[in-house]
Amino acid sequence: GERILEVTDLKKHFPIRGGLLGSTVGYVYAVDGVSFHINKGETLSLVGESGCGKSTVGKAVLRLFPLTSGQVVLNNRRIDDLSAGTLRPLRRQIQVVFQDPFSSLNPRMRVRDILAEPIRNFGLAKNEAEVDERVGALMDKVRLPRDAVNRWPHEFSGGQRQRICIARALAAEPDVIVCDEAVSALDVSVKAQIVNLLQDLQSELGLAMLFISHDLAIVEHMTHRVAVMYLGKIVEVADRKSLFGSPRHPYTEALLSAVPVPVPGAVRERIVLQGDVPSPIKPPKGCRFHTRCPYAFDRCRSEEPALRDDGTGHLAACHLHDRPAAENPLLNKAPP
Ligand code: SF4
Ligand code: MG
């Protein structure tokens, strides 16, 4: 497919200030060398436990703060090094839907004004009549009644507010939408409706999505590809079927073991990881997962594994794949 977003060796290190003079005493290595791409019309899900850096990746590609290093290419144009002024018109191309539909809508603006703002800011309508027409069309797209545009955010339920947030993102006519835990705060039944809406919109509009989520059951239901993050790094990337069917990283295997299998009667063997996620201030040497990995061996403690393709487009960063297949525990599991 045609690449719409390409991220190369992205790093975001937040300085820790301390001492009398407020000098930098260390860094939080929140994102520490992350590369991925998204094709036109494709959903890439970024998954991992809270604190792994996935939201920071989302904010970095949205350029909500400067990067420490790395490249972000949107529609064949580098955006990581642009000034705020140069970036402003390009922001139309990448929009965001955040987790909390309660705090992300201005309570003092009617829905009409919330949706009209990006249309006006990006000069997408010739006059106010056209603004109104576009606002109405956006309400249709997110399946809300047109006359609800006169209401205030507090008059809507959580799910309806998230529809308004989606409409606001669509108002800019983006090519890419970043959804950061966009359904995590919603009730189970509402979750499914919003996920289905996002899927419908994606195929209708040819949108690309970066779907940031800790909820693998939802991801399994709707994504095209998945990237798994652990402690500031991507440890595995694959298409949905390949990742859920035959994970090639022990961390992914453990995460998946906690997800209900969509086949009646089938179970996955539950893998409970020992210990806590180490601090991103002092990540472990070698493989960052070695302190919790059930298969860790000597090499893992000293040498960092590279993210490597198995030849089918399935990438994983794990030394086990240097072993003969018969001695690789990841490849010798009974299927669920
Ligand atoms: Fe586990 Fe070693 Fe693979 Fe890291 S490289 S995931 S510690 S087996
Ligand atoms: Mg987050």
From TrEMBL:
Instruction: Name the SMART domains for this protein.
Output: AAA
Determine if Transport is one of this entry's keywords.
yes
PROSITE patterns xrefs: ABC_TRANSPORTER_1, ABC_TRANSPORTER_2
Which superkingdom, per the lineage? Answer: Bacteria
Q: Which Gene3D superfamilies does its entry note?
A: P-loop containing nucleotide triphosphate hydrolases
Task: State the membrane topology.
Answer: Peripheral membrane protein
Q: Which GO molecular-function terms appear in the entry?
A: ATP binding
Q: Where is the ABC transporter domain?
A: 5-256
Cellular localisation = Cell inner membrane
InterPro entries found in the cross-reference section: AAA+_ATPase, ABC_transp_ATP-bind, ABC_transporter-like_ATP-bd, ABC_transporter-like_CS, Oligopep_ABC_C, P-loop_NTPase
Q: Does the keyword Chloroplast apply?
A: no
Give the UniProt keywords, A-Z: ATP-binding, Nucleotide-binding, Transport
Q: Name the family.
A: Belongs to the ABC transporter superfamily.
Q: Which NCBIfam families match?
A: oligo_HPY
Q: What is this protein called in UniProt? A: ATP-binding cassette domain-containing protein
